[in-house]
Amino acid sequence: MKKILIACCALWLFSSCGEYYKVQKSYDPEERYSYAKKYYNEKKYSRVVTLMEDIVQSFARTSEGPQSAYLLADSYMNLGRLDEASKMFQDYYISYPQAPMVEDAHYKAGLCLYRLSPDPKLDQTDTYGAIKELESYLEFYPKGAHREEVEGMLFSLQDKLAYKEYLSAKLYYDMGLYLGNNYQSAVITAQNALKDFPYTRHREELLFIILSAKSDEALMSVLDKQQMRLREAIDYYYTYVNEFPEGKYLKDAKRIYEKVSAQLHKD
What we know:
It is a single chain. By secondary structure, the chain is an all-alpha fold. It contains twelve helices and no strands. Mean pLDDT is about 90; it is low at about 5-15.
């Protein structure tokens, strides 16, 4: 019985593969498309892509245009070919603005780019592209089915950009006075990040970097600039503690305040 079962499975597998290889060699777009739909329903996405890539444009101006484009785009996405999928979904909603799956295509175009967004330490071109695409979805579908998820993705992407700015500010701060006044660059970078991303989860870190950079710059300043800079550092101390009265950097912030105040009163 076991041998019979194995033989049946092997026969089925051979038949299935033989069918696929046969249609793969076909020059008939209709036949390839018919089997592509079958394989899509069976979740055999690599087969769909192989059959459809060369023929999808032949359906562009037909009634099957929207479905054939969506089928290929979604197969790309399920295979992890996200850049190709996003471009195909964009082509879908641009070419077929009245098609049944147009909102879903608009959403998935942004979702693919969201998944491509890299680590904050790397170039963020894909992140900006994802933000643009997701904002486009909300513009077209302010009450769309995916609105809440898209808003969450947008916040996550913007937070990633804010963290990248924090890393830049931290790098400037760590460089100190090496080859110039990097404290000012740290302050400007952090301030711009707070302006661009006021609700970021890294707001406390950015405020503390500003306080640290301001205080270190003040303590190392020449006398005619020191008084003003010491007062600016104290102002940022109060900005920090008022916003984060139980912040994780509170002890360090108090030590900075005491050191700066001591220098201010000493002068």
